[in-house]
Specification:
Immunoglobulin-like, elongated
Length: 564
């Protein structure tokens, strides 16, 4: 492969001095699978910069001299003799002293490709040519498969590409230790494992390198001129032919959703470790994660630590477990960190349940799993009309019968003392208005029956979680609810959205507190409405979020949305 840099002497054509030239570093990856252009030349501002780069080949990082901020980048067939031979060009901003990664994608021809994606150049402006920590490998992901779906890329417990569509890069580099591993391409929730590849960080000698992993080729070659088959490939800073990641068997993975239900005032946020790794950082009280991947089939542990912990050495309690591959788990964090002022004061712990669900068994229903997490409440029974949901449920236990499936509607629960049948609370389960149709929810008995004996902590109430995580949904006491059966649902449009979300509802939104949470359950902002019941989301990074609406005494709605 032959490389030609821009000639600084060419600047004299513009009557400008060499001293005014600025340097940028560029690596070019040709990922265009169209057989009509098996190799390409890349021109910057009319100068041949990369010559005859083949499909699935990368240049090395190359220093290029530029002037100004707006520049023309053009592609021509590998046999080109001048800028006049280019078939595609864009004008873009290039900042001096920066490093850029440029990837060609799509097809020049519009015949025989399903779906047809126009030829494009995708540019990443924060490229690296080595890892930040020389003991690690830094990985950037690019989705270059024209007939592929939106996907996540995962390795071990890390998601290094989240909800990435064709033509997009992951949100920055992810650092990995120099240990051989397996890459999983999954759907956006991680529930469905689509493809598995081996990435031998150590065996391939990638320590201290920054690499770009590219999805390339066609899922269905027959619908795309029998073009190259789908696979994962990676490039290093040295360039050359992209190196394939060999297909492999699936890694042993389980799924775990964590629910933070410790009502101790010292546990407003908690850190969670799985093994020695920080699994969830600063999980708020009455919030849950989505289902997250954990390594299975080896002895492991779930450790609970105070917020802002520095290592696994700070854990307050550890639950030992060997997760079963392919199984789903629920982990509810309960108990008290600091016993003074709490009666009773069971220690902080994690209650694990094997058999968690990420969706209802029937789309029209809601599946509910009950867990008792109120430290001072008696054993409870919960009924709905004439149906008994659970009876004799004591602190620290799940319903032994597992999930209960109900047709989705807003229903009334009677929560009673199992011993004397006295009513502890009557509350509404907002299965419909809470957006839980087709969902599997964990309903948690939370807070204190006698707050005065427990540092005046939060009152006893039932809360529901969703598989997507985020703030738990209050099951409000019936005595505080007016016409909850006729409460309108909340719908946000558009979804995905770029700058604004509009909330469609018959409710008076001025009476609601509206919050935005990220996928891990971290509250990002309290949002206010502008004209037309719209919320400004322009400042959010692209990704998945939750809009949470809460009014005292009424059901909360937690609505998933995607920021483009």
């Amino acid at each position: 492969m032959k490389l030609k840099k821009l000639l600084i002497t060419s600047l004299s054509l513009f009557g400008l001095s060499i001293a005014q030239a600025q340097i940028i570093d560029i690596q070019f990856i040709n990922n265009c699978p169209d057989p009509a252009v098996p190799d390409v030349d890349l021109y910057i501002n009319g100068q041949l910069t990369f010559d005859n780069i083949h499909f699935r080949e990368a240049s090395q990082f190359t220093s290029v001299s530029i002037l100004g901020s707006t520049h023309n980048i053009a592609l021509a067939p590998g046999t080109s003799t001048s800028i006049n031979d280019t078939f595609f060009s864009i004008n873009t901003t290039l900042i001096p002293t920066s490093k850029y990664l440029i990837v060609s994608n799509g097809m020049k021809s519009n015949v025989g490709f399903t779906p047809y994606k126009k030829f494009s150049l995708d540019i990443y402006s924060n490229a690296k040519n080595h890892a930040q920590n020389p003991s690690n490998i830094d990985v950037l992901f690019f989705h270059g498969c024209t007939d592929g779906t939106i996907l996540d890329a995962r390795l071990g417990i890390k998601t290094f590409a989240d909800d990435v569509n064709y033509g997009q890069f992951s949100n920055g580099y992810t650092a990995f230790p120099a240990v051989d591993g397996k890459v999983r391409l999954t759907n956006t929730t991680g529930k469905i494992n689509l493809y598995n590849f081996s990435l031998a960080f150590n065996s391939l000698g990638l320590t201290s390198k920054a690499i770009t992993v590219v999805s390339s080729g066609f899922i269905n070659p027959a619908a795309n001129n029998n073009g190259p088959a789908f696979g994962l490939y990676f490039a290093t800073e040295a360039g050359g032919p992209l190196q394939p990641l060999p297909p492999t068997t699936a890694e042993a993975i389980a799924r775990l959703q964590l629910i933070q239900n410790s009502a101790d005032s010292a546990a407003d946020f908690l850190d969670v470790y799985v093994g020695n790794d920080l699994f969830v950082d600063n999980l708020p009280f009455r919030n849950s994660t989505t289902f997250l991947d954990v390594i299975a089939s080896i002895p492991s542990s779930v450790g609970i630590a105070p917020k802002n912990s520095t290592s696994v050495a700070d854990v307050l309690h550890t639950a030992a477990i060997a997760f079963d591959s392919g199984a789903n788990y629920i982990g509810v964090i309960n108990g008290i960190i600091s016993p003074a002022g709490y009666t009773p004061s069971p220690g902080i712990n994690t209650i694990l349940y094997k058999g968690g669900k990420e969706a209802a068994s029937t789309p029209a229903n809601t599946d509910m799993l009950l867990v008792h997490g109120s430290t001072d409440a008696p054993s409870i029974s919960i009924t709905e009309s004439s149906n008994t949901i659970v009876t004799g449920l004591s602190y620290g236990n799940y319903n032994s019968a597992g999930y209960t499936s109900m047709a989705t509607s807003n229903v009334i629960f009677d929560v009673k003392n199992s011993t004397n049948s006295s009513m502890l609370q009557q509350c509404t389960a907002p299965l419909m208005s809470g957006g839980l149709q087709g969902q599997a929810t964990v309903i948690v008995a939370s807070g204190f029956v006698t707050p005065s004996n427990n540092k005046n902590g939060p009152d006893f109430k039932l809360y529901a979680t969703a598989p997507a995580g985020g703030p738990m949904i209050l099951l409000p006491p019936v005595t505080a609810v007016q016409n909850i059966e006729n409460s309108s649902s909340f719908i946000v449009v558009p979804n995905p959205a770029t700058n604004e979300l509009q909330i469609n509802t018959q409710e008076d939104l001025a009476r609601y507190m509206i919050s935005v949470y990220d996928i891990s359950g971290r509250q990002l902002a309290i949002k206010s409405l502008n004209a037309g019941k719209k919320i400004d989301i322009a400042s959010l990074q692209a990704g998945t979020y939750f809009l949470h609406l809460q009014k005292e005494g009424q059901a909360a709605a937690t609505i998933k949305f995607v920021k483009e």
